[in-house]
Design a protein that fits this description.
single chain; Rossmann fold; 8-stranded mixed sheet
Length: 233
Amino acid sequence: MDDRLAAMGIRKEIFWCPDTAPHALIVGATGSGKSYCCQLLLGKISIYEPTAKITVLDYKGDRDMNYLSGCERFKRYSECCEGLEQFYQAFLARQSGEDTSRAPLFLYFDEFSSYFNNIEDKKILEQEKRKFATILFLGRSFRVFLICSCQRADAAYFSNGARDNFNLVIGLSNMSSEAQTMLFHEYKSELKPDRGRGTGYMLTNGCNLQAVRVPSVNNIEKLHTAIKQAVTR
């Protein structure tokens, strides 16, 4: 939500329309609140896009998403390769016309950069990066979207400048100067060093810099249920 208004006691939610600002990138150091932010975003997608199908790849593999254990479209750690391939094939089915449906498909990949860093075979690494890039460049037309979180969004993780195709960018907590340059280059001078856990800055379509705050969730079980519904549709 809008952090400036929240400081005055006014709750104003900020809405994301993936069709006009496709693909989301959430960046922040450990403890910045990015996993919490992403889960809240997934829950909102499930509620406001009742036909949306979500695939979750949790490379970190901690306990935060244990409630999704057993779901077909939930993969952890070593299974993330399989999950990415399944999602990529779903994209190709739409591109080829085999699947003519347009219910939105979302892939949430937590700590995707760590996934890339741990692929030792360079050929396989480039194949995985190309899948990412293809979806970032072409997914919007078929309502296929990426939501990615990481601690650093280095350009090396993206083929052919594909990072620029994240049209919703959120940086949480106080970012390093390098991270500010990577993600908020034109607005770097406007970023204040007063960000804490769950607060940060957001850009939509490369402009409209906003200070944001991740709202607290009163009913975490309800949030988990909403996410699980979208993962099992």
